[in-house]
Amino acid sequence: MTVSHATGPVTDPSLFTAVLSHFASGLTVISSTSEGQPVGLTCQSFFSLSLDPPMVAFSVARRSKSFAVIRRTGDFVVNVLSAEQRDVSAAMARSGTDKWSGVRWEQGELTGHPVIDGTLAHLECRIAAEYDGGDHVIVTAHVLGLGHATHETARPLLFYRSGYHGLAEHAHA
Ligand SMILES: Cc1cc2nc3c(=O)[nH]c(=O)nc-3n(C[C@H](O)[C@H](O)[C@H](O)COP(=O)(O)O)c2cc1C
Asked: pTM of the full predicted structure?
C-alpha cells in the first residue's frame, strides 16, 4: 500500500507535533510525594533503558511543576496505565490543578510513593542522572522494585494521534 505523506519544514511546530503523534505508545503516570502529598504527571516518553543494571528513562518538560518536586525527592513510581484509566491520565496532565482528587492509591513498598489503584504495572525508581534534551530533560533512573497485574484480561491505555485508544485484541505471537 502506498502512503502519501504531508511534509513541510522542521521549523513548523504543528507539523512536528503531528508527525510525532503517529508514534503510538502506552502511557504512564510518574508519581512521588512531598510532605505526604502526592504529585505526578502523565508521561508518554517512558522507556526501558538497561537490563543490567535495571534502569528506565523518560523525558520531562523543564517547566514541569511535578518534576521539580520529584527531583528534590530523588525517587518516584512509574505507573503503567490500564485502559480504564483515561480519567487518571487526563487529570495528571492538567498542571496546577488538584490532580489527585478522587484518585485512589497505595504507598509503594520501597519508596512510599503512589502506586495508583488499577495500574497494569509499576516500578519504584531512584533518579540516576539528568541529560539536556532541549526544552525537556532526559531522566535516567535505577529500578528499586516492581510489580505487575496478574489478571490476563488487563489491557493497556494507548495514545496515538492525540487520542486515547485500546487494544482491540491481544496480538498472536
Ligand atoms: C498523553 C500525554 C502524554 C504526555 N507525556 C509527557 C511526557 O512524556 N513528558 C512531559 O514532560 N509531559 C508529558 N505530558 C504533559 C504533562 O502531563 C503535563 O504538562 C502536566 O500538566 C505536567 O504537570 P506538572 O506541571 O504538574 O508537572 C503528557 C500529556 C499527555 C496528555
From this structure: 0.95
Residue whose Cα lies nearest atom 11 of ligand 1: it is: 60
Q: What is the dihedral of CA 61, 143, 42, 164, to 10 degrees?
A: 120
Which residues, 6+ apart, have CB-to-CB distance to 50 below 8 Å? Answer: none
Q: Is the CB of 78 under 6 A from ligand 1?
A: no
**Whole-number Å distance between alpha carbons of 115 and 67:** 17
Nearest CA to 120 out of 82, 146, 147 is that of 82
pLDDT in tens, 49-104: 999 999 999 999 999 999 999 999 999 999 999 999 999 999 999 999 999 999 99
Could you tell me which CATH class the domain 26-154 is placed in?
A: mainly beta
**Residue 56 CB contacts under 8 Å (≥ 6 apart), including other chains:** 46, 47, 48, 49, 78, 123, 125, 140, 141, 143
Ligand 1 centroid to 3 CA: how many Å?
30
34 CB within 6 A, ligand 1: no
Atom of ligand 1 nearest to the CA of 159: 1
